[in-house]
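Input sequence (464 aa), recorded before submission:
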Amino acid sequence: MSVRVRFAPNPSGELHVGSARAALFNWLFARHHGGAFVLRIEDTDPATARPEFIEPILDGLRWLGLDWDEGPDVGGPYGPYRQSERRELHLKTIERLVDAGAVYRDYCTPDEVRARGTARGYDRHCRDLGPDQVAAFEAEGRPYALRFRVPERTIVLNDVVRGDVTVEWKDVQDFVIARSDGTPTFVLANVSDDLAMDITHAIRGEDLLSAAVQNLLVYEALGETPPVYVHLPLILDEQRKKLSKRKMATGMHAFRAAGYLSEALVNFLSLLGWSPGSGEEILPRERIVSEFDLDRVLHHGAVFDREKLDWMNQEYMKALSADEFEARVLELHPEVPAEVLRRAVELDMVQTRVRTLSEVPQAIHYLHTRPAVDPGARDKVLATEDARAVLSRTADALERVEPWTHEAIWEAVQAVAEEVGLNKRKATAPIRVAISGSQVSLPLPESIFVIGREESVARLREAV
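Predicted structure, C-alpha cell format:
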C-alpha cells in the first residue's frame, strides 16, 4: 500500500502546538514510508473558518520545515485542496447516503428539541416520521437538516494507538451530515475528501476520536473501506491538564518570536507522544524520519515540559556555527549591533549561555549601551569602602593595560584583588555591577574588552 496521509486544519487561528504535532507525525510517517503528505484546508464551517489564517498556517508549516507534496498552493492530482471548493463532490457523497437510506430529514428546530427536555442532545424525534407528518412539514415549507441514521448495534473502531474502541449505538447521537442550508458538516466533508484523495491513514488528535466513530459509520454506509485511524495522545501542561491556549502562547509565531529554533521545536514535538527505541532525546530530523513509525506512538498524555524545550533549544544553539548563530539572531532581532554581536560570539560569551535567540539582545545590551545600575546591586555591592578602592584601582589599572586583550584585562583585575586583600569573587562583584549594571553578566574580562578601554574606565569612575 502506498502511504497517503493528510494534515487538514480548519483555518480558525494560527498553527498551534497540537496541530503542529499532528502535522509533524503525518509528515514523519509519510517521509519514513516514501509516501505522500497532503495539505488540505478544511474551511467548510462558516462559523469558524477565516481565510486570513490560511497563510499563517502555511507559514508555520514552512518554518518547521514540513513540506507538502500536494496542497492548495502546489496543486496535485486530487485537487482542489480547499474544502470550500469541493462542494460538488460533497453533494454527490450526500446523494449516495440518501440513496442508501442511511440518512433522514430532521425538521426539528433547536427550540423544539430543548422543549422536549432531552439530556443527551438530539432525541431522534424525526428518525421514523410517518408520511403524513413529513407531508405536513413539507407543506409548511419547514427547512430540514440531514441526519445520519446510526445503526442499532455495537460499533467497534479499530485504532492503532487505542486498539478496539467499542461504543453502543444509543451513546452515539444521530449526527448531522448536511445543515439546513445544504452545506456539509465536518464529518461528511472529511469522509468525502479522504475517500476521494485515497487517504490511507488518518493521524490526528485524540479529541477527534468521537468524530472517528461517526466517520467509520459513514464509510460503512457508503460501502467503502476507512483509512487506518491513529489518534495521538493529548498534549498536557505540567499540571497534567489539557494544554490551554488561554494560559500559554502555543502558536508557531509565538515560539518563533521567543527565539526557539525550528529544528529544536521539531525534535521536541516529535517526542510528545512518541519515543525512539534508544531513548535518546537530541535527534536530528533525518534520524527521526528513519526511526519513526506508529508502533511507538504512546497512548497516554504527553506533557509539554517548557524547561526541557529550553534545554533542547540551548543544545541546538550550541551546535550552530558562529556565523549561523549570528545570522539567526540578526534575522530575528535586526536591531542588535552586528559588530558587537560578532565580537561577543567570537569570544564565546553568549552562544552557550542563552536558552533562546531572543535572550541575546538583553544579554549583550550593556556591551553597547551604558546601563543604569540596579538599585539593589548598588546598595548591596557598591556602597562599601572596599568597593570604592577596587573600582578606583581597577580604573587606573585598565588605563595602563597593554596589549588590550581580555587575558591582559583579567590579569590586571586579579592584581587589584591581591592589592586590596580581597578574594576574586568579592573583588570582581563591584566591577561587574559597574560594568553591566547588574550582579549577573556575561564573562567580565571579555565584557570589558568588548566595551573598550575608555568606556569601561568611565563606567568604573562613575560607579565610584
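Checked by second reader. The radius of gyration is 31 Å.
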